[in-house]
Amino acid sequence: MKISIFSAFYPFRGGIAQFNARLVRSFEKENEVTAFTFKKQYPNFLFPGTSQFVEENDQVDKIKAKRIVSTFNPFTYLGAAKKIKAANPDLFITNYWMSFFGIFMGLFGSKQKKETTKLAIIHNLIPHEKRFFDKWFNSFFLKRYDGFVVMSDSVKNDLLSSKPDAKYIQLNHPWYDHFGVKISETEAREKLKISPSKKTILFFGLIRDYKGLDLLIDAFSELNDDYQLVIAGEVYSNLQKYKSQIAESKAKSRIYFFNQYIPDSEVQNYFSAADVCVLPYRSATQSGITATSFHFEVPIIATNVGGLKGIIDAPELGLIVEEPNTNLMKDAICFYFENNLKEKFQINIRKEKESNTWDKFANSLISFSKTL
To answer: What is the per-residue pLDDT for 224?
Structure first.
């Protein structure tokens, strides 16, 4: 099958680029794949981080994607759609996670040949930070695709509320396997220069207000000296707010804050050092952090928002906190360690690994596309 995919790819960094690089590698085992990506994704003045691009020495999968569209330059939209059409795909897949992509991604769908099946992987439909144009842009986009892939009940419900007759398939987010193998806990903690013996809690990923890091810092501040907290990720909101909160915490000497984008080659250090990964989110759909944490066999404590409960609860891969609440979070962390749940959850994680591979995900997409 000839497959074309539009997404963020190298040289852009981040979870969507990682997701699709891994998906391309599974597709290309038995198919002819052409990857397309942005010329410019966000204007620099609107981008909250230090860089949209990987560094030269980052060890990333350098997918050779054709750079065809600038998000904020409408004059590139039709030309980009024609370039995708010229690849003559049997299956065109786009990835949708920002409503302001709706216009040009909608055009990409509408300009393909009639015999091309158009499939959209929806990572997020309703933004965490809502904008006045979300509903209209989403509607424009959704009308121009034949089928949709969702990875949580939350996104499924958002899809069906916007397009009740949508044809969709719901799959689990595959578990990442490109960050290397787990190293010893001792080695990882030495690399991070943290205590070798304390109970280690990890918060990982880009930091936005809806992710509830402030709640976790407050909860951690009530834990005794047996615990340490590692925060690893670049702040995409008010950095000073978190610095001040940590400085005022009575547990500040046990909080290690790595305010930076974590390159692929260093991800293993953080998860290998952790006893548990905590997702104290105020809102969510699904999270790529779960796919990384489970690859390294690190259980998760997460709030009951979006699709997190469905991912974690039934297969018993961690604990669910019923709401984003400081006291409930502290109690869950204490319960996890006091009852030595790490080993139990790790056994369950190992059982689930074979069900969450990229090859199975890719094959399911192709099989679904043939029904449309």
So the answer is: 96
Closest to 128 measured CA to CA, from 281, 352, 288, 309: 281
CB 329 within 8 A of CB 219: yes
Angle, helices 153-162 vs 134-142, to 10°: value is: 90
Q: 263: cis peptide before it, omega within 30°?
A: no
User: Do β-strands 255-258 and 168-170 pair in parallel, antiparallel, or remain unpaired?
Assistant: unpaired
334: its two tokens: 């204490």
Q: Which string of b and e fits 241-260 if b means at least 16 CB within 10 Å?
A: ebeebbeebebeebbbbbee
Q: Do 2-174+357-369 and 185-355 show the same overall fold?
A: yes
Question: Mean pLDDT in runs of 10 for the chain (372 residues)?
Answer: 96 91 97 96 67 77 94 95 97 94 96 97 84 89 97 93 97 92 97 97 94 97 97 92 96 96 93 98 85 96 91 92 96 98 96 93 98 96
Query: What token pair was written down for 56?
Result: 């030269």
SS3 145: coil
Domain-wise residue ranges, the chain? 2-174+357-369, 185-355
The predicted model scores a pTM of 0.90
Best CA proximity match to 299, nearest among 195, 202, 173, 181:
202
For residue 248, the number of C-alpha atoms closer than 13 Å in the C-beta half-sphere is: 9
Start-end of H helices in 320-357 = 326-338, 342-352
Which CATH code is given to the segment(s) 185-355? 3.40.50.2000
Topology of 2-174+357-369 in CATH?
Rossmann fold (3.40.50)
**Residues in CB range of 246: below 8 A, 6 or more apart:** 217, 252, 255, 257
334-325-172-16 Cα dihedral, nearest 10 degrees: -110
